[in-house]
Amino acid sequence: PGKYLGVLDPEKAREHLFEGLDPALRDQLKDGPTVVFVGGNFGCGSSREQPVSAMRASGVIAVVGRSFARIFGRNAVNCGMLALVNPDAVSAARPGCAVSVDTETGAVTVEGTECQSAPIARLPHAIATAGGLVEWIRAKGYAGMTGVPAPTNQHASQEVDHG
Predict the structure, then answer these.
(1) Could you give the CA distance from residue 145 to residue 60 in angstroms, rounded to a whole number?
(2) Which residues does 121 contact at the CB level (< 8 Å), separation at least 6?
(3) Strand runs (DSSP E) across the chain, as ranges?
(4) Using the 8-state DSSP alphabet, how is residue 68 labeled?
(5) Is residue 87 pLDDT above 60, yes or no?
(6) C-alpha 65 chain-centroid distance
(7) Between the chain's N and C termini, which has fewer beta carbons within 10 Å?
């Protein structure tokens, strides 16, 4: 929710994850890599990157949905998280089921059944799998030109001084 937009530390922001929707959802996130399945137009009305960075801090490595709001999908890429459009995987998923995501092909396997995600354009895929926009820029050697500071943790994109 908007009242938490001033919380820039992803570890603190995760305490408010899904608060405007259903706070019990954040309690279902387990330690370690997690894939979250969502319905259609997920992220609508969420123009900030804090929800995505809070999800990443909570162990979410990918969100698989029927569709995504454009801005959520872009924030996911910029924060190093894949947002995969895969209605078949969403239909097959059940709480606690065995899931794997092939980050190269976008295939999502749910309980042994492989479901192919909609293709991800090459550049957004490269940015997301590099760990986000800041890490991608740094890997390309642009850090000196842009003044991007060295990371202090895995969520360095949240610590960039824009002032």
Answers:
(1) 31
(2) none
(3) 34-38, 60-65, 82-85, 99-101, 107-110, 113-116
(4) B
(5) yes
(6) 12
(7) C
Instruction: Give me the amino acid identity at 149.
Output: P
In the numeric block, which tokens belong to residue 76? Answer: 């996911």
The whole-angstrom separation of Cα 106 and Cα 69 is 19
User: DSSP state, 150?
Assistant: P
pTM for the model: 0.80
The DSSP secondary-structure symbol of 74 reads: H
Mapping DSSP to helix (H, G, I), strand (E, B) and coil, where does residue 103 land? coil
Coil, helix or strand at residue 42 = strand
Please state, in angstroms and rounded to a whole number, the distance separating the CA atoms of residues 96 and 28: 10
Long-range contacts of the stretch 135-142 (C-beta < 8 A, 24+): 135/80
Q: Quick one: tokens of 29? A: 């996130």
pLDDT tens digits for range 95-111: 889 999 998 899 999 99
pLDDT tens-digit series, residues 119-157: 889 999 999 999 999 999 988 877 555 555 555 544 444
The residues near 99 (Cβ < 8 Å, ≥ 6 apart) are: 35, 93, 108, 109, 110, 111
Q: For 16, which DSSP code?
A: G
